[in-house]
Design brief:
By secondary structure, the chain is of the alpha/beta class. The protein is 31% helix and 23% strand. It folds into two domains: 89 residues, Beta-grasp domain (Ubiquitin-like (UB roll), Roll); 206 residues, TIM Barrel, CATH 3.20.20. The protein contains eleven helices and 14 strands. The strands form two sheets. It has an eight-stranded parallel beta barrel with strand order 7-8-9-10-11-12-13-14, surrounded by six helices.
């Protein structure tokens, strides 16, 4: 592990002995963040890493307290009684940017939330939705002071790291940098992406809200991903009219980087959004105001296409 900067433990997996009298059940039960997961008997370390949506070259593995060489991830099989720890790592400073962009390319569901001060359940909420499969979370508190934002970002950063997800801050590249976030999301009238890039450096993700075809056409190269919407009017953006699905259809034809449909999307209208060409969506109220946020996440993921392998589209 010499020369590696550890960004945070992703998960610890415990492979217990087989259950019951039959020692060969055809599968091995592992615990991921305290929750059971079944993997096929004979599964390799590489298979386990990939099943969690991670890229093996960005993960350090220890098996029974001993490091496993990356070159052997595809050879080492999990056996009953094994203890396997996976750590997301940054090697030499450059890999973190590649990991973030690869993770972005495979993302489908992005949840934007405030700090949930009224409910007081931020940590539990993030744990629930990330366990259910959310790929990105964004802290959006427009009027909060930097000190409050930094305190809340600690909860976001820890939760995202545990689940191998991405964490972004709305509007504030300075806070994103101080918090060690994966990036920042900007609006059309916020700090320009080129300036945010100078603040954050080349490894951070920068997102840009887009509301019209010309926003997509003129999007600067510093923006790693774009949005398309709001499709329907939403109280999250008061006074901004809905774009309708035509902007989504056009984005599917023309946008050359990852992009997310946004604005009033729910499990009920998601089929229309997907039919228009969206592979990724951003939601706010559909998850943050749901009686069961994790169930809402699962319903949305069930209606989205499988992740794409490359960055465009």
């Amino acid at each position: 592990m010499i020369g590696l900067t550890i960004r945070g433990t992703f998960s610890t997996f415990l492979v217990p002995g087989p259950r019951g009298a039959d020692p060969y059940t055809g599968s091995v039960e592992v615990l991921a963040n305290g929750k059971p997961r079944e993997v096929p008997e004979g599964a390799t370390v590489e298979a386990l890493i990939r099943s969690l949506g991670l890229e093996p070259r960005f993960v350090i593995v220890e098996r029974n307290g001993e490091p496993v060489e990356r070159a052997r991830y595809a050879e080492v099989t999990l056996a009953p009684g094994d203890r396997v720890e996976l750590v997301r790592a940054v090697a030499g400073g450059g890999d973190v940017g590649a990991w973030r962009r690869e993770r972005l390319a495979r993302s489908r569901l992005y949840v934007v939330t405030d700090a949930r001060r009224g409910r007081g359940d931020l940590a539990d909420f993030l744990e629930a939705i990330l366990s259910a499969g959310v790929d990105l979370v964004q802290l959006r508190e427009k009027d909060a002071e930097a000190g409050d934002l930094l305190r809340w970002t600690e909860v976001f950063r820890a939760a995202a790291s545990r689940h191998g997800a991405l964490f972004l801050v709305n509007d504030r590249p300075d806070v994103a940098l101080a918090a060690g976030a994966d990036g920042v999301h900007l609006g059309q009238n916020d700090l320009p992406p080129a300036v945010a890039r100078r603040i954050l450096g080349p490894e951070a993700l920068i997102g840009l809200s887009c509301h019209a075809p010309e926003d997509h056409d003129l999007a600067p190269p510093e923006a790693d991903y774009l949005t398309a919407g709001p499709i329907w009017e939403t109280p999250t953006k008061p006074g901004r009219p809905g774009t309708g699905l035509e902007l989504v259809r056009r984005a599917a034809r023309t946008v050359d980087r990852p992009w997310f449909a946004i604005g009033g999307i729910t499990p009920a209208n998601l089929p229309e959004v997907v039919a228009a060409g969206a592979r990724r969506v951003v939601v706010v109220r559909a998850v943050t105001e749901a009686p069961d946020p994790a169930a809402a996440v699962r319903a949305l993921l069930a209606g989205l296409p499988e992740p794409v392998a490359q960055g465009a589209g």
